[in-house]
Amino acid sequence: MNLLLELFITFFRVGAFTFGGGYAMIPLIQYEVCDNKKWIKEEDIVDILALAQSVPGAIAVNSSTFIGYRIAGIRGAIAATFGVVLPSFLIILGLAGLLLKYGDNVILGKIFYGIRAVVVSLILAAVYKLYKSCLIDYWTVIIAILAFVLLIIFNIHPIFAIICGAIVGLILYHNTQQNLKTKGGN
Description:
2 domains, 186 residues, single chain, 7 helices, mainly alpha
């Protein structure tokens, strides 16, 4: 029961103190589960984030669910998911009326102006931390660059990019295995 409460509180903090949506939550999730709690290795968080991105739903909710499940099964998934979603729900519920009433307020506008800038830095921080554990050789760098070009310039759907990356990774793995067999057989 203590682990479930700890999961809930950890993800409640993530949900309560991260503005800007799921991608802005990634560095805080990574810090909490890898560095602070040491529930998951940093290399594994990348796989969880890739999986969370490739299924329907918000990346923060999906990754919280996967992490909770990995740590404490179904109950852990429920605790982590409820923890990350509850703060947003409560904040939106509480602020909805205020934003409707004071949405044109200059001070409120300046506050959100500053928050948006911080959100960009949170996303860039997540990219930096992920790049260190993902781009490990020239093939992964090439795959990342090609995916970036496809996503930004050709505006392809992210799912298509993920599927293409998985196929290329599988082909590279297959070729590596073939090369090892060929070298070992001579």
